[in-house]
């Protein structure tokens, strides 16, 4: 493994980007457990320990799904670009980006904790948050763009100096992910800055709700791939070597990342199957495209399984049983904990991926939409492979960059297995509950799970109870992780500080295929497909939306009167009414 | 590309084709679909039930913080119902788990779905989209085949 040595400021940057979200994660994890207690009725009140249910739910979503994942994608992108191109990072853009992301996170977190932004991480209008919450989210997202702009320079320099050579798979993965991220988040930044911000400040009276939702889901589905692709990078580039084998095919890997670039965005309306203002034709078309995204995952399933089986055979596994190689992998080697984190994520993702196919289906959606089945599904993606990949890789990077060594090795290696067990129990409870109609995002403890309430639903008791058991196990696993992490951070430096990644060799000698060695054709296909899928959707929304909506507060069924037309320009009905009363 | 990759690709293609056929069949043979969108009109915001024929009804449902209007609806067994749904204030959801009926109520948009109540019973209508601090109390009922009627 090639070693490189990072400069002091590069190390400081990586520490900052890894540790800030991990510190916030304690809050996110805490409210994860609390939600299972609220939903099962064990806590039958609106708030607990000064944190209201929906406020905590917003915190859980924003920190775990937006802050942690974005910070990690940027931090991991930095070290991957640094390691695989060999060039120094552009520290100006890197620090500007880190500063923007931190400022944005602080703003959003303060607004949520002060109770001014209980609008969930989807910030659904016309529920209004404080303007600073929207600005915070914009800063977090655009901050990550700035890091990406720095990498574009590194990428172009590499292409100039290595004409005709094979781009490294890790570089393709990082760049593809951030190109996709940049394009999809333009929509949500537009929606935040130009629709929601002036509306929440009272500069515009109303907002087009279906438009903000459609723009959100233009971004929202690609967002899940933005979480996932850094972990896919680990699966392709690092997992085969960690298992003691080789990657089956490098070109297949590149093809997969390019397919994600193409298919991630034009599938967003499959989150809106149950909504008005988008016609069935558009929804059906995007449903079919969604099955296009299944293609790279199928290729991945094959390539990774083949790579792992190859590793087992190299270790001397010989058996006629086609499945027994699975038992021959280094599951419980305490010094190879990154393998454990990654393989556990992969096992969870088998179910996570398959349930995703159910959600995206044009007809099954009406069975599961917005029920507890949905969090059951996405906890097996974002809280499975993504979360375990982030935790494992954070430990791996911190260990190498600090020159310290993890001391609680056995505990560390057990964490992902414990998490996997907890996740299967937790998600099973949610998914079965979903089939029985349990709504998601609902404080069920004070209504449906309260035996004294007229709304009591006894058929949901054992499913929500199951999620509590899973939640406690997950909470314990996360607690152990923080113990291992703190122990690592307070350990004494015992080795040199360096950076290296277990990087693959391929099983086959492969030619450089020009089509798989350039972003241009894929970006063109992506833009064309977005146009075909989203121009009709936007036109639908403009045609079918009958009225816009004023802002609302979560506690009050009457709209807030924020908007004040400038004096003299327009005498509204309200003012004439007041005059009449005076007479 | 080696022979294993080719085999895997063929298997993938077959799997995806099965999914596609299953979806098409459920749409066209069983007519299970997703809601239609209807051009918006103010009249959709007046909650009411209209009887068109012996067994054919129209429900104009309005979701608001934090109730469904009309709150309690009574229908005979076998009623074929067109449900039109919109929202008075924020975004709501409408879920009848026993019927797999799943619609969103979005201010400014009108959603339409057709269902048949084949079995008698009390159908619970649950709001499944976060709509503010009273969200967990938002539930309505459709009672099918009430006595003496």
Detailed description of the structure:
The complex is a heterodimer of chains A (583) and B (149). Helices cover 66% and strands 1% of the residues of chain A. Chain A has helices at 8-40, 53-85, 91-113, 131-161, 169-200, 209-242, 250-263, 280-314, 337-360, 365-368, 373-379, 382-402, 409-435, 461-489, 520-544, 573-582, and strands spanning 47-48, 51-52. In chain A, helix 2 (53-85) packs antiparallel against helix 3 (91-113) and helix 11 runs antiparallel to helix 13. Chain A is globular and about 65 Å long. Chain B is α+β, with helices and mostly antiparallel strands and 149 residues long. Chain B has 2 domains: 1-33; 36-144, Immunoglobulin-like (Sandwich). Chain B contains 1 helix and 11 strands, in the order αβββββββββββ. In chain B, strands 1, 2, 3, 4, 6 and 9 form a 6-stranded mixed beta sheet that branches. Chain B has a 3-stranded mixed beta sheet with strand order 5-11-10, with no helix packed on it. Chain B has a two-stranded antiparallel sheet with strand order 7-8. In chain B, strand 2 (48-51) and strand 3 (56-64) form a beta hairpin. Chains A and B meet through helix 6, helix 8, helix 10 and helix 15 of A and helix 1, strand 1, strand 7, strand 8 and strand 9 of B.
Amino- and carboxy-terminal Cα gap of chain A: 87 Å
User: CATH topology of chain A, what is it called?
Assistant: Cytochrome C Oxidase, Chain A
| Helix-strand makeup class of chain B | alpha+beta
Average pLDDT of chain B, rounded to a whole number, is 88
Strand tally of chain A: 2
Report Rg of chain A.
Answer: 25 Å
Number of helical runs of chain A? Answer: 16
* Number of DSSP E strands of chain B: 11
Rg of chain B, nearest Å: 20 Å
Write down the CATH topology of the largest domain in chain B.
Immunoglobulin-like
Silhouette of chain B: elongated
Tally the helices of chain B: 1
Principal-axes shape call of chain A? globular
- Assign a percent range to the helix content of chain B: 10-25%
Q: Supply the number of structural domains of chain B.
A: 2
Q: What is the CATH domain class of the largest domain in chain B?
A: Mainly Beta
Query: Hey, roughly how much beta strand do the residues of chain B contain?
Result: 35-45%
Judging by the overall fold, what is the CATH architecture of chain A?
A: Up-down Bundle
Low-confidence regions of chain B: none
């Amino acid at each position: 493994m090639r070693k490189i040595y990072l400069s002091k400021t590069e190390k400081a940057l990586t520490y900052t980007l890894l540790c800030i979200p991990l510190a916030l994660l304690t809050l996110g994890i805490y409210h994860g457990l609390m939600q299972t207690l609220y939903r099962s009725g064990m806590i039958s009140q609106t708030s607990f320990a000064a944190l209201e249910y929906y406020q905590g739910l917003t915190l859980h979503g924003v920190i775990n799904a937006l802050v942690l994942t974005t910070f990690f994608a940027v931090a991991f992108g930095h070290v991957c670009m640094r390691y695989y191109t060999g060039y120094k990072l552009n520290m100006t853009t890197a620090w500007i980006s880190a500063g923007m992301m931190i400022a944005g996170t602080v703003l959003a977190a303060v607004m949520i904790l002060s109770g001014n932004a209980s609008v969930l991480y989807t910030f659904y209008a016309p529920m209004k948050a404080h303007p600073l919450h929207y600005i915070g989210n914009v800063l977090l997202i655009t901050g990550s763009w700035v890091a990406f702009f720095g990498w574009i320079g590194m990428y172009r320099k590499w292409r100039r100096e290595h004409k005709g050579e094979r781009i490294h798979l890790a570089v393709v993965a990082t760049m593809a992910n951030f190109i996709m991220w940049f394009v999809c988040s333009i929509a949500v930044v537009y929606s935040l800055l130009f629709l929601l911000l002036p509306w929440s400040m009272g500069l515009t009276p109303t907002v087009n709700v279906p438009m903000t939702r459609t723009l959100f889901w233009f971004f929202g589905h690609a967002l899940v791939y933005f979480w996932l692709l850094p972990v896919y990078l680990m699966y392709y580039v690092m997992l085969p070597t960690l298992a003691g084998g080789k990657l089956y095919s490098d070109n297949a890997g590149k093809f997969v990342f390019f397919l994600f670039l193409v298919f991630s965005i034009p599938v967003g309306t499959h989150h809106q199957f149950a909504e008005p203002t988008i016609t069935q034709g558009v929804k059906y078309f995007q449903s079919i495209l969604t099955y296009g995204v299944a293609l790279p995952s199928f290729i991945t399933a094959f390539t990774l399984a083949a790579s792992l089986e190859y590793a087992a055979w190299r270790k001397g596994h010989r058996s006629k049983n086609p499945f027994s190689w699975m038992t021959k992998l280094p599951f419980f080697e305490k010094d190879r904990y990154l393998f454990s984190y990654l393989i556990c994520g992969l096992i969870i993702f088998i179910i996570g991926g398959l349930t995703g196919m159910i959600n995206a289906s044009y007809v099954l959606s009406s069975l599961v939409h917005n029920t507890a089945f949905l969090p059951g599904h996405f906890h097996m993606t974002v809280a499975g492979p993504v979360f375990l990949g982030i935790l494992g890789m954070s430990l791996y990077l911190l260990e190498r960059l600090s020159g310290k060594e993890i001391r609680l090795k056995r505990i560390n290696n057990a964490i992902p297995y414990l998490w996997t067990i907890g996740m299967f129990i937790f998600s099973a409870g949610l998914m079965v509950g979903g089939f029985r109609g349990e709504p998601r995002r609902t404080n069920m403890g004070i209504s449906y799970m309260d035996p004294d309430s007229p709304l009591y639903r006894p058929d949901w008791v054992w499913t929500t109870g199951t999620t509590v058991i899973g939640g406690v196990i997950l909470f314990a696993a996360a607690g152990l992780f923080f113990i291992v992490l703190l122990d690592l951070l307070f350990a004494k430096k015992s080795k040199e500080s360096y950076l290296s990644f277990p990087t693959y060799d391929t099983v086959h000698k492969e030619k450089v295929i020009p089509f798989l060695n350039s972003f241009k054709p894929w970006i063109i296909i992506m833009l064309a497909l977005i146009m075909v899928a989203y121009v009709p959707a936007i036109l639908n929304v403009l045609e079918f939306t009958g009225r816009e909506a004023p802002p609302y507060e979560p506690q009050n069924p009457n709209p807030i009167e924020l908007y004040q037309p400038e004096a003299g320009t327009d005498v509204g009905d309200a003012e004439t009414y007041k005059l009449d009363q005076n007479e | 590309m080696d022979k294993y990759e080719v085999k895997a690709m063929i298997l993938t293609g077959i799997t995806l084709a099965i999914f596609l056929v299953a979806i098409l069949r459920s749409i066209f043979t069983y007519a299970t679909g997703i809601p239609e969108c209807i051009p918006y009109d103010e009249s959709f915001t007046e909650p009411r039930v209209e009887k068109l024929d012996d067994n054919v009804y129209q429900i104009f449902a309005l979701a608001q913080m934090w109730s469904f209007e009309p709150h309690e609806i009574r229908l005979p067994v076998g009623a074929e119902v067109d449900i039109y749904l919109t929202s008075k204030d924020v975004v709501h959801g409408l879920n009848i788990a026993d019927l797999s009926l799943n619609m969103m109520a979005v201010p400014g948009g009108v959603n339409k779905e057709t269902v048949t109540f084949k079995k008698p019973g009390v159908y619970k209508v649950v709001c499944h989209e976060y709509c503010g601090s009273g969200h967990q109390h938002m539930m309505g009922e459709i009672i099918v085949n009430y006595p003496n009627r």
